[in-house]
DNA sequence: AATCGCTCCAACCGCCACCCA
DNA sequence: ATGGGTGGCGGTTGGAGCGAT
């Protein structure tokens, strides 16, 4: 339905609105959104729905492009946007889906309820690519992809399983930097970054790992970190309950290969691990892994250490 | 206290596909 | 067939926040 300019609802009040519409023509606002702008956008969409973003921007009295309004709504103001830390399940899902689809952020986001493509893209760039950089690998290199497949993803599965078994509480699965005591094989670089020096050889198996879906109650799923601006939506809209569908349940909906037991289509979790090959690959990279966030932490090191000891 | 460097993420940009007159 | 408008997507950037020096 075309929204004609003369059918605009006056959101800001008479003459002021006319003035604003005139200014808008050649005075497009950019940069961070104000609370007032957020409120105007939310209010307008609440009454008229979304779509036709250019005319929506005009009619809502916003000095923004339609694109900007659309982005602000979809990535931030939408009531079912789920903010806060990326959970372990979500990390696993992102790694898995990215291995299948590459940088298809929007497609990946469809399988993470409440998460936006922008958020996933940012996660990938800030966390995953950081690790590739630390390994001195190209993020698209076989070495790095195999490291993800054979080390990170199985480890994530383990941690999900452990947390689920121990507590049955998915809130324990949200990202956090594990800090424990130092270890002989954990180096600190000049900047104090905790690092794992990869062993010379390593072999072991990673069998069929069964995962129990964690508790999906809203209390456990909401991981806080709502910005002051987006908090506006909380008081304006009731929170959408569907935002708390668990990512795990979605794994089963993705299609070919997912059978509900978290056996990935690419078979990551069923393969016998050729860790020697991995180590070789890591040697081709730097052989040093950063512990500074939750893809690698001291728990991971201890996990690998257990396997080393068995050799 | 000031400065610097780094991380993270909200927002922008450019391109492309689709729709419709 | 075509050209303008629009929406969607992926890549990139600017700046706030924060810790280190």
UniProtKB/TrEMBL annotation:
<feature type="compositionally biased region" description="Polar residues">
    <location>
        <begin position="202"/>
        <end position="215"/>
    </location>
</feature>
<feature type="region of interest" description="Disordered">
    <location>
        <begin position="163"/>
        <end position="222"/>
    </location>
</feature>
<dbReference type="GO" id="GO:0005634">
    <property type="term" value="C:nucleus"/>
</dbReference>
<dbReference type="GO" id="GO:0006355">
    <property type="term" value="P:regulation of DNA-templated transcription"/>
</dbReference>
<feature type="compositionally biased region" description="Low complexity">
    <location>
        <begin position="164"/>
        <end position="181"/>
    </location>
</feature>
<keyword id="KW-0677">Repeat</keyword>
<dbReference type="GO" id="GO:0003700">
    <property type="term" value="F:DNA-binding transcription factor activity"/>
</dbReference>
<dbReference type="GO" id="GO:0043565">
    <property type="term" value="F:sequence-specific DNA binding"/>
</dbReference>
<feature type="domain" description="HTH myb-type">
    <location>
        <begin position="78"/>
        <end position="132"/>
    </location>
</feature>
<dbReference type="InterPro" id="IPR009057">
    <property type="entry name" value="Homeodomain-like_sf"/>
</dbReference>
<dbReference type="InterPro" id="IPR001005">
    <property type="entry name" value="SANT/Myb"/>
</dbReference>
<keyword id="KW-0805">Transcription regulation</keyword>
<protein>
    <submittedName>
        <fullName>Uncharacterized protein</fullName>
    </submittedName>
</protein>
<feature type="domain" description="Myb-like">
    <location>
        <begin position="78"/>
        <end position="128"/>
    </location>
</feature>
<keyword id="KW-0238">DNA-binding</keyword>
<dbReference type="InterPro" id="IPR017930">
    <property type="entry name" value="Myb_dom"/>
</dbReference>
<keyword id="KW-0804">Transcription</keyword>
<feature type="domain" description="HTH myb-type">
    <location>
        <begin position="25"/>
        <end position="77"/>
    </location>
</feature>
<dbReference type="InterPro" id="IPR044676">
    <property type="entry name" value="EOBI/EOBII-like_plant"/>
</dbReference>
<dbReference type="Pfam" id="PF00249">
    <property type="entry name" value="Myb_DNA-binding"/>
</dbReference>
<keyword id="KW-0539">Nucleus</keyword>
<feature type="domain" description="Myb-like">
    <location>
        <begin position="25"/>
        <end position="77"/>
    </location>
</feature>
């Amino acid at each position: 339905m075309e929204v004609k300019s003369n059918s605009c609802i006056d959101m800001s009040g008479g003459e002021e609105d006319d003035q604003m519409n005139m200014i808008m023509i050649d005075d497009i606002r950019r940069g961070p959104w104000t609370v007032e702008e957020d409120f105007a956008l939310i209010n307008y969409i609440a009454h008229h729905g979304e779509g036709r973003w250019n005319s929506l921007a005009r009619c809502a009295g916003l000095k923004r492009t339609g694109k900007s309004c659309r982005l602000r709504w979809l990535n931030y103001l939408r009531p079912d946007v789920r903010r806060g830390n990326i959970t372990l399940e979500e990390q696993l899902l992102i790694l898995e889906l990215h291995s299948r689809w590459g940088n298809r952020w929007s497609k990946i986001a469809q399988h993470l309820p409440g998460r936006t493509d922008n958020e996933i893209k940012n996660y990938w760039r800030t966390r995953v690519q950081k690790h590739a950089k630390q390994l001195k690998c190209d993020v698209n290199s076989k070495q790095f992809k195999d490291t993800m497949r054979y080390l990170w993803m199985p480890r994530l599965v383990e941690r999900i399983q452990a947390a689920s078994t121990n507590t049955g509480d998915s809130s324990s699965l949200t990202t956090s930097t594990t800090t424990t005591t130092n270890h002989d094989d954990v180096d600190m670089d000049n900047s104090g970054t905790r690092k794992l020096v990869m062993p010379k050889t390593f072999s072991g198996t990673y069998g069929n790992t069964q995962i129990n879906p964690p508790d999906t109650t809203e209390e456990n799923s909401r991981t806080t970190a709502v910005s002051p601006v987006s908090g506006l939506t909380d008081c304006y809209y009731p929170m959408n309950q569907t935002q708390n569908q668990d990512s795990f349940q979605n794994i089963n909906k993705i299609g070919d290969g997912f059978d509900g037991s978290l056996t990935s289509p690419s078979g990551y979790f069923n393969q016998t691990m050729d860790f020697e090959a991995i180590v070789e690959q890591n040697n081709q990279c730097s052989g040093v892994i950063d512990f500074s966030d939750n893809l690698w932490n001291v728990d991971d090191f201890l996990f690998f250490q257990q396997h080393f000891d068995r050799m």
